[in-house]
Amino acid sequence: MPQEISVSYQAIKSKVYRLIDALVVGEKSEMDVQESIRRWWDLIHPADRPIAQKYLLAVLGRSNSALEAIGSGLIGTGATESEYEPLPSKPLKMMERAIKETAIRSMV
After folding, report:
1. Interval 24-80: pLDDT, tens
2. pTM (2 decimals)?
3. Residues 61-72 as b or e (16 or more Cβ within 10 Å = b)
4. How many CB atoms lie within 10 A of CB 24?
5. Cα(13)–Cα(9) distance, rounded to whole angstroms?
6. For residue 59, what are the contacts with CB-CB under 8 A and spacing of at least 6?
7. Ramachandran bin of 29, using left for φ above 0, alpha for ψ from -120 to 50, beta for the remaining angles
8. What pLDDT, on the 0 to 100 scale, is given for residue 8?
9. Residue 107 class from Cβ within 10 Å (0-12 exposed, 13-18 middle, 19+ buried)?
10. Can you tell me whether residue 80 is helix, strand or coil?
């Protein structure tokens, strides 16, 4: 019997934050996180994917904004640019691409 995956905003936010935490503490590599999110996405029923994508992109966008605000706050404390490099928005774009590629694979 297929496992049901919640696509509520809170469930998706929790999934994303758990993956971020696992990456930060070193339990998972970036590749592990990417594979985990692909497996999770494949478990979501195709009819639920549009709302899951909406919530996932909202969580990622807000998380990215929070990271940028933290970085800007760090620079405001006197940290030099050589000590801090802002995170590019490339990971967010990669996630958007992965979601779209998975959605296309699901339609075929």
Report:
1. 899 999 999 999 999 999 999 999 999 999 999 999 999 988 888 888 887 776 655
2. 0.69
3. eebbeeeeeeee
4. 9
5. 6
6. 9, 12, 13, 16
7. beta
8. 95
9. exposed
10. coil
- Phi first, then psi: give them for residue 7, nearest 5 degrees: -115, 25
Structure tokens at 14: 């929790």
In this structure, are residues 95 and 34 in contact, taking their beta carbons and an 8 Å threshold?
no
Q: Scan for tokens 């195709």, then name that residue.
A: 46
Residues listed for the chain: 108
HSE-up (13 A, CA, CB side) for residue 7: 18
Nearest to 60 by CA among 18, 16, 104, 4: 16
Q: Let me know how many helices (H) and strands (E) the chain has, helices first.
A: 4, 0
C-alpha distance from residue 81 to each of 71, 73, 89, 91 (Å): 10, 12, 18, 21
* pLDDT tens-digit series, residues 1-24: 456 788 999 999 999 999 999 998
Which residue is it, tokens 């990417």? 34
